[in-house]
Design goal:
This protein is an alpha+beta fold. Among the domains are: 117 residues, Orthogonal Bundle (Multiheme cytochrome fold), CATH 1.10.3820; 84 residues, no CATH class. 44% of the residues lie in helices and 11% in strands. The chain contains 14 helices and 8 strands. The strands form 2 sheets. The protein has a 5-stranded antiparallel sheet. Strands 1-2-8 form a 3-stranded antiparallel sheet. Helix 9 runs antiparallel to helix 10, helix 9 runs antiparallel to helix 13 and helix 11 packs antiparallel against helix 13. About 2% of the residues have low confidence. The structure holds heme C (5 copies). One heme C binds next to helix 7, strand 3, strand 4 and helix 14.
Length: 374
């Protein structure tokens, strides 16, 4: 082989390698992009992580945010969040494969994207004003499924810094707090920052020994949407709430005697498997057949429809594989089932400023009042 041929072959090889390399890079970039897009898709979270996150995915699908993708809240857009979430997401994939993940998945999520950036893509409480009315319709577990209607106006308010009012005042203002436990259920200290940077401080008088200024400095957090709306989309409703809703919507016929009680007996407390829950719901038919034979003939279609709906409620409340039920995750939006607003209100007392010793307001009417509807 002469030198010219060798050189030509060498050049060809080099060209081929460059060409292959370029194609490879294109594929890599495209493939990588596809992979990243796929990892961000709701299908990836919901289906691949089906086993781990099926409780969150199931209740998400029937929540007000069912059309907002997982990534929109958990990842966000922009290279910085992409890198961060993929890096922190990798260990999750490994523990999923190795089957060593926590059951239930612990909350709060440490690396959730800042709420102000996520939620405010779509909601701006600064622009809200006034009160919103919530009508709660509930039913007693008696023969008639007696209906009760309770109407409350919530002082949701809103507004920017100086004029912020009512419940959404907390985000118009700058409210710092110190959680004393990982789940942020125990709050020891609060500091409200004024426009001049000065703090009005509040403390839990029973926990003062733990409230060193160093700890406050290192561990304080700025209050945001998630400190109240931590169950904005993974809303684990109890069978009781779901049955009440189904009765109100007419999916369960409220003229069926004891239907609320029968549903509750089947589903609360949580069953150890979905098939167990479904079998108990199915048995409601035999109950009517035996105890209300004539009604069973007349209302067979309504009974069948109620059973179908109760099976759906079983699906939304039974997550034994992940040790999750409606009692697992605390909802901070209220103060009935968990401390919520009362983590601070009525508990912490002012330690600086003009009203030293005064507790953060817990007067019922500051937050809501009842309305009598005609
Ligand atoms: C509207 C915003 C939003 C969307 C959409 C969303 N999440 Fe979440 N997610 C949250 C919030 C808020 C938390 C609780 C954060 C906290 O308490 O720190 C959370 C928590 C979680 C947790 C931790 C366990 C728990 O229940 O607290 C998992 C797992 C999770 N989400 C998975 C998903 C999956 C899978 C999807 C899509 C199918 C999804 N999320 C969609 C807002 C969202
Ligand atoms: C991509 C848009 C989008 C994002 C991001 C988003 N939401 Fe929403 N949210 C909606 C829409 C749309 C509705 C109304 C759904 C309906 O009425 O069915 C809604 C409803 C709500 C409601 C009222 C629920 C109810 O029961 O009436 C609350 C509270 C809420 N969102 C809080 C949040 C919080 C907190 C976050 C951040 C974690 C968030 N949202 C992120 C679009 C969004
Ligand atoms: C101090 C607690 C608290 C904080 C902080 C908070 N909210 Fe709310 N928000 C509430 C309460 C309470 C309601 C009314 C109760 C309900 O909707 O269940 C509400 C209602 C809402 C609604 C429903 C309004 C409607 O007309 O139905 C939206 C949307 C909302 N908040 C978004 C946000 C966003 C976004 C943030 C953060 C920027 C935020 N909230 C911060 C407590 C809070
Ligand atoms: C981290 C502590 C903390 C939590 C949690 C908290 N608040 Fe507050 N809230 C405060 C502080 C501090 C003030 C201002 C001091 C005061 O009013 O006594 C305040 C003030 C308010 C006000 C009066 C605002 C105004 O118009 O001046 C309302 C209404 C209110 N909170 C409602 C709620 C509701 C509803 C919740 C639960 C969903 C809640 N808060 C949870 C700390 C908290
Ligand atoms: C710091 C604000 C705040 C104060 C003070 C407060 N509440 Fe509430 N309360 C709430 C919020 C927020 C909810 C949830 C409303 C909703 O989502 O419908 C609620 C819900 C309730 C509910 C209904 C629970 C349910 O699931 O239907 C009752 C009952 C109630 N409050 C009674 C009281 C009484 C009585 C007082 C006075 C001792 C009081 N509240 C003081 C904020 C407050």
């Amino acid at each position: 082989m002469n030198q010219a041929t060798a050189q030509r072959r060498h050049r060809e090889k080099l060209l081929f390698l460059m060409f292959a390399g370029a194609i490879g890079i294109v594929f890599l970039v495209y493939g990588g992009y596809q992979l990243i897009a796929f990892m961000d898709s709701t299908a990836f979270c919901g289906v691949l992580c089906h086993k781990v996150m099926y409780p969150e995915y199931t209740v998400y699908q029937v929540s007000p945010h069912s059309r907002v993708s997982c990534a929109e809240c958990h990842v966000g857009s922009g290279a910085d969040y992409l890198v961060r979430s993929k890096v922190t997401g990798i260990p999750l994939v490994f523990v999923t494969l190795a089957d060593t993940y926590d059951r239930p998945i612990p909350t709060p999520v440490e690396n959730l994207r800042p709420a102000r950036e996520t939620c405010e893509q779509c909601h701006r409480p600064e622009k809200f004003t006034g009160d919103i009315i919530r009508i709660h319709t509930t039913y007693l577990p008696d023969e008639k499924n007696t209906k009760k209607v309770d109407t409350r106006a919530l002082r949701v308010g809103g507004g920017e810094f100086a004029v912020a009012r009512d419940i959404h005042w907390h985000i118009g203002a700058k409210v710092w707090y110190l959680p004393l436990d990982k789940s942020r259920q125990e709050i020891g200290w609060v500091g409200v920052e004024g426009s001049n940077g000065q703090l009005i401080e509040y403390a839990d008088p029973k926990r003062t020994a733990e409230l060193t200024s160093q700890r406050i400095q290192d561990e304080k957090r700025l209050m945001d949407c998630m400190d109240c709306h931590n169950r904005a989309t993974h809303i684990f409703r109890s069978p009781e709430e779901l049955i009440d809703t189904a009765l109100t919507q007419g999916k369960i016929d409220s003229s069926l005697p004891f239907i609320k009680k029968l549903g509750l007996d089947a589903l609360d407390p949580p069953n150890s498997s979905l098939s167990e829950a479904i079998a108990k719901v199915e048995a409601i038919k035999s109950y009517y057949q035996a105890s209300y034979a004539q009604l069973y003939q007349e209302k067979k279609a309504a009974i069948d429809a109620a059973v179908v709906e109760l099976k759906e409620i079983a699906r939304l409340t039974t997550f034994p594989d992940m040790n999750v039920s409606w009692q697992t995750y605390r909802d901070n939006i209220s103060h009935q089932e968990s401390p919520g607003c009362f983590r601070c209100h009525g508990k912490l007392v002012e330690t600086t400023g003009v009203q030293t010793g005064k507790a953060i307001d817990a007067d019922c009417k500051s937050c809501h009042y009842s309305l009598a509807l005609p």
